[in-house]
Write a structure and sequence with these properties.
This protein is mainly α and about 120 residues long. It has one domain. Helix content is about 85%, strand content about 0%. It contains five helices and no strands. Helix 1 runs parallel beside helix 3. The longest helix has 26 residues. It is globular, with a radius of gyration of 16 Å. The two termini are about 30 Å apart. The mean pLDDT is about 90.
């Protein structure tokens, strides 16, 4: 149990730091009405998850890799809760087309990223 907790803890910390870095990077150039930093974090996380799902079972590193990279890193790096709040905030501001576009773009691009990752790992 303890090794698994440590894997998730370290991976989650690294994923959260990576997500923060993307947010800071976009903050400097924020002229967009959509939260592209969240979209990018979710897309990259889904791509990594797809790659790992395709690669880990044949790596001999499945259990540790799943905990450290999928549960930890991807869990810390993806931002579904932030995404959900951003959509709600857009709706509250009356930006319905932007909210719908952002939610659809996020959902579809992340599904495509998972499929692409699996295909790339095959």
């Amino acid at each position: 149990m303890w090794p698994g907790l440590i894997y998730v803890f370290v991976g989650g910390g690294l994923g959260s730091v990576a997500r923060y870095a993307i947010g800071v990077g976009f903050e400097k150039h924020n002229t967009a009405t959509l939260p592209y930093h969240t979209l990018l974090s979710n897309f990259i996380s889904c791509l990594i998850a797809g790659l790992l799902i395709g690669y880990l079972p044949k790596s001999g590193f499945y259990t540790e890799g799943r905990l450290w990279l999928l549960t930890g890193f991807c869990g810390g790096f993806s931002t579904f809760s932030t995404f959900s709040l951003e959509v709600v905030f857009m709706i509250q501001k009356g930006a319905y087309p932007s909210a719908l576009f952002y939610a659809t773009l996020s959902f579809l691009s992340c599904l495509i990223a998972v499929f692409a990752g699996i295909k790339m790992a095959s």
